[in-house]
TrEMBL record:
The chain crosses the membrane at residues 7-32, 99-121. Pathway: Lipid metabolism; Phospholipid metabolism; CDP-diacylglycerol biosynthesis; CDP-diacylglycerol from sn-glycerol 3-phosphate: step 2/3. GO terms for molecular function: 1-acylglycerol-3-phosphate O-acyltransferase activity. It catalyses: a 1-acyl-sn-glycero-3-phosphate + an acyl-CoA = a 1,2-diacyl-sn-glycero-3-phosphate + CoA. GO terms for biological process: CDP-diacylglycerol biosynthetic process; phosphatidic acid biosynthetic process. It comes from the Bacteria. It comes from Myxococcus fulvus. The HXXXXD motif is essential for acyltransferase activity and may constitute the binding site for the phosphate moiety of the glycerol-3-phosphate. Keywords: Acyltransferase, Lipid biosynthesis, Lipid metabolism, Membrane, Phospholipid biosynthesis, Phospholipid metabolism, Transferase, Transmembrane, Transmembrane helix. InterPro entries: AGP_acyltrans, Plipid/glycerol_acylTrfase. Belongs to the 1-acyl-sn-glycerol-3-phosphate acyltransferase family. Signal peptide: none annotated. Residues 75-188 form the Phospholipid/glycerol acyltransferase domain. This is 1-acyl-sn-glycerol-3-phosphate acyltransferase.
Length: 241
């Protein structure tokens, strides 16, 4: 069954991605003068990713909790990383943000082009310039009132194991004096483990927004903050088995 589901998903994806890119380009053309942050375009992509691609199979279920906790202003949203499907899962939050992603994704046809239109933030992992690539554009977005979303692990490990949190997201929050919002993603490995390739017919996923950590609680040490937030994830996920 997973072979059928995988073929069906990629059929849906490949036939609808060009439509999304075309609609997105037209929307940006007409809305950019009044929406330079591209919030409307981001909403369209969230809707497309969540309602169409993440619901391509009737056996895929996603539950969202705590959306009301997301701040309306600038913040650093951090998300644990288990699978490539985490990206589609967090789109269901329908919250404006600039997504930080590895630079290689921006070269992909259609998907990468759309990420460029959305003005998401590319970063070359392992590069000596990686920290500047992360901090400089993210600072600009935060100062414009736009949240940024970062996977602090940088990538995902086989089997959904949690990796150490890198300090970049937390340094950004400390320096810009904005809240850190932990978002916990569970169950995406039921759908797709790592990069796959095979998708399972059934998956039960959950995306939970935890209470934001206010700026005054962050301290001045990004490394200590990263460890503290990772410990929060460990406790939260362990409590759910």
């Amino acid at each position: 069954m997973k072979y059928v589901i995988t073929v069906w998903f990629w059929l849906v994806f490949l036939t609808t991605a060009p439509i999304l890119f075309t609609l997105g380009a037209l929307l940006l053309l007409f809305t950019y003068p009044v929406d330079k942050d591209r919030r409307m375009l981001h909403w369209l992509v969230c809707h497309w990713c969540h309602e169409l691609w993440l619901h391509a199979s009737p056996g895929w279920r996603t539950r969202f909790e705590g959306k009301e906790l997301l701040p309306s202003g600038p913040c650093v949203i951090v998300v644990n990383h288990q699978s490539a499907m985490d990206i589609l899962a967090v789109m269901g939050l329908y919250h404006p943000y600039k997504f930080v992603a590895k630079a290689s994704l921006f070269s992909l046809p259609l998907v990468g082009w759309m990420m460029t239109l959305l003005a998401y933030v590319p970063i070359v992992r392992g590069s000596s310039q990686a920290m500047h690539q992360l901090l400089d554009p993210c600072r600009r977005w935060l100062r414009r009132g736009m949240p940024v979303l970062i996977f602090p692990e940088g990538t995902y490990a086989k089997g959904g194991q949690r990796l150490p949190f890198k300090r970049g997201a937390f340094q950004l929050a400390v320096e810009e004096h904005v809240p850190v919002v932990p978002v916990v993603v569970e169950g995406t490995t039921e759908l797709l483990e790592g990069d796959g390739p095979w998708l399972n017919a059934r998956a039960s996923m959950r995306v939970r927004v935890l209470p934001p950590l206010p700026p005054e609680s962050l301290g001045q040490d990004p490394v200590e903050l990263a460890e503290r937030v990772r410990a929060l994830y460990e406790r939260t996920l362990s409590a759910n088995g």
